[in-house]
Structures are given as C-alpha cells and as structure tokens.
Amino acid sequence: MQTDLNTSAFGKNDIRGIFPSQVNSELFFYVARGYAKWAFEQLKKAGKETKYTDLCFSVAMDARLHSPELKAAILDGLTSMGINVLDIGMVPTPLGYYSEFARLEDSILFGLKVNGALIITASHNPSEYNGLKMTFGGLSLNEAQIQEVKTYTLEAFESKESAGLRHIQHGILITESITENYIEKISNNFGRIGEGIKVVVDSANATGGVVAPKLYRELGCEVIELFSEPDGNFPNHHPNPSDEKTLDVLKKTVLESGADCGIAFDGDSDRIGVVTPDGKAISGDKLLLIYALDLIKELAPRGETLTVVSEVKCSQVLYDKINEAGGNAIMWKTGHGYIKSKMRETKALLAGEMSGHVFFKDRYYGFDDAVYAGCRLIEIIAKNKKNNPKFVLQDLLVPFEGTFLLNEGRLKCPNEIKKPVLDNLACYIDENPDMFGKKILDIITIDGLRIIFDDGFAIIRQSNTEPVFTLRFESKTSQEQCEHYRNVLVGKVEELKERHLVS
User: Fold this and answer.
1) Marked catalytic residue, from 123, 228, 315, 475
2) Per-residue burial over 413-446, b = 16 or more CB atoms within 10 Å of its CB, e = otherwise
3) What is the DSSP letter of 227?
4) pLDDT tens digits, one per residue of 430-473
5) Summary count for the chain: helices (H), strands (E)
6) Which of 109, 103, 112, 105 is nearest to 51 (CA)?
7) Residue 123 appears among annotated catalytic residues
8) Residue 12 pLDDT level (bands cut at 50, 70, 90)
C-alpha cells in the first residue's frame, strides 16, 4: 500500500517532472482535488458564498503521449469533488488561459462561468516529461500559491474521506472545442492585416499546428506549414525554439521560399521563435524590443508611457533603447509567473523573456500567447512594408549593431547543489573582484548573479524547470570578450560543483 505521495514535481511556476516517476495519474488525481479545495478557499476568503457544484474549471492538454492519461486523472479528481469541468481537448496552453475570457454560450456551460484552468503540459521539455499549469480568476498561480496547492494536495492524499472517490462522478463534464471561438476573436481584432505577407510556420508536431496556420490564413497571409500534425514523439525536432538547432528546417524553408518571416512554437505554443528573411533567428530580447518600439510609437501621440517588464538575462540594449525611446523598462526575475505578477504590479502593457514568452496587455489579456505574438509580428511587418516595399524584418535589429552576444548557455548542475554553488560563487566574487580582469561595476541579485562591467555583463541563474544553470554574456568590446567572461565564469562554477559533488 502506498504511504506517501511524490511531490518533487512541484516547482516555482508550475508542476513538471518525468513521467511516470515524478508525474503520474495518482499525483494528478490528488492535485486536482487539492487545487479545487484551494480555489474554493480563495473564494471563501473573498467573502463569496459558493458550493463546489457552482464552480467550473477548464482542462486542456498538449500533444505528449501520456497527456490523455493525466487528463483523465484531472477530470476524475475535479468531478469527484462536485466540480464542473469544461474539457477543451488538445490545444495550445494559451487557449487554456483564453477559456477564462472566452464568451461561451450559456447553453454550453449551463450558465456557469469558467473560474480557472488546468493545463497538462511540459512545455519545451523532452518527451519523457509532463506537467501542469494552473490559473484561477484569470491569473496564473504564483510560487506561494503553488505551494499552497501542494499542501492541499497532500491533505487530499492523506484524508480517509478521499478514499474510493475516484469513480464517484458528481460534477458535470462538458466537452467542447473553443478553437474556432479563439480564431474568430483574434481574426476579428486584426482583420486582413496579413495580405501580401508570406510566413513559414513550424509547429514542431506539438500544439501550434492546431490553431496557428488557420488563424494566419484568416489574416490574409500565405502560410507554408512545417510539422503541423501533433505527435508526442516529436519525430522531426525537439519543440524548443530557444535551441537554435531546432530551427534549421525553418531557416532553410524561409530562405528557399522568400518568406517575410518564419515563426516557430514550443511544445505548448506559449513561446515563439522567429526567423528573419535572411534565415537568422531572433533572440527573445531582440524580438521584445521590436514589439516595444512599435508600441511606443502608438502610445506616444496619446501622451502615454509604455512600461515593459523583462528578465535578467536580456540584453542591456533592450532596456537602454526602451528608456531612450520614452518607455519605462523594468528588469525582473525569469519565469512566466514572476513576469505576470510584475506586470500586474507595474500596470505594464508588454513583457517578455529570452525564451520567447511574450505578454501583451495592450489589446489582449496579458498572458503569454505565441500564436497571438505571431499576429502582432505579422502586423508590424505589414505596417513597415506598406511604408517601404523594400522593408525586411532584420531592418528593425539595427539597435543591436556593435553589441556582441553569446546565445543563452546551459550548464548542467544537480538541483540540490545549485543554490550552494551559486552562494559560494557570490562569496568568491566578493573576495576576488578582479577575477574577470575587468572592474565589476555592480552585481544584480534579483535572480541569480548579473555581473555588470563597463562594456557588458555576465549572468548565471538557476533554471526554474531543469537541473541546469542558465548563462548569458554580452560585450560592446568584442566577441572574444564575451567568450572570456564565459570561460572564467564556467571554469569557476565547474570547480565549485566538483567540490560539492565529492563532499
């Protein structure tokens, strides 16, 4: 008989782990019950008298092979509490978010309102991973709230009252696609802005192919599709546009077709990758600057200042150019939960991360939606081509000329020693401020260590989702200077790792 529940998959922004050792139907059954209890308590604290049978949560899943099994467990867990469920099937994660905002017929929901969403996905992780993203009241759960759900999950597991409830269905289960609703909503907002634009769309055999090609055609685009058919084996390439190797076919197709851009999605389509007409990938910070400068031009005539939130790994060019253009750029922690919270706090209309998460509160709902971000990019390209028929997307990257960057790097490190290694590194730098051969002007510690030099920076931080450190280096001096920063930092981290591993 099982005596404890493995909750190691609970993270800072979501639940994520390897199937079935860390993530399995047993865990998800009790997570569903724990989440339901947590949500009920939130309403109770807010003074809203309600019953479990008054609540409705949407459930979505990605294309991974074990997602249907995990979804069944979520449905069982929710309905066994008396919760009503809107099952929207296999769709991009953003459609799970959208389900809370979609105007659905009362005849579909029996007059109920969608109170939150449970989305089964492991995003860009390899195929052996799976996980769960949770929202409530139109907002993603933050780190503290996820820990509260974990507590309720363990209580549900340990409670004798929950024994034998798996097959007692109390809540109503509604199965309904909202894909057409989403496409109609977005296309109505943009109109035919894509006419004359050719775009290559790489869905990586994940969820993007369910929505994006059809939507972009509705906007008037000529669309060339790559790997649109969902397949949880990801047979063509890994669904992670942050890894430039996964963009090889997209780059080749953009070049051969003369497309205006290439758009790639990750496993659950909340992260976007973009390729320029000359076959080069645009990093997340460069893409965010394109969006920011375009939006600043729209807001400035109305006397409005654009606040943009981004993360510690992004180029200093991003922050400097936004501020120079009259915007307000805010640096914050990496992670979609942190970014969304900071957006709410600062009333930002735009945010983004290196990984390709882009959040639009302007004309949209504020969550990360790569399919929608693609629409905004198509709109920007169309506007510029109207003013200049010779325009190409790379024209908007001029601000980054003269700045040398290394692509985001990853350094493996077991989760249990990441924090002590980083703490030891901070102490070492404090005691050896000349270790890089350059004067250190500042160290930003809101998320890892962003070490500031007079010509650039080096950053190391703990990944929220994987046993790795993420690294980034920038210099206005030379590419060799970037590599020097990397070599010094990585060398010291490897030395500190070895000490912890042998101790």
Assistant:
1) 123
2) beeebbeebbebbbeebeeeeeebebebeebeee
3) S
4) 999 999 999 999 999 999 999 999 999 999 999 987 899 999 99
5) 14, 21
6) 112
7) yes
8) confident
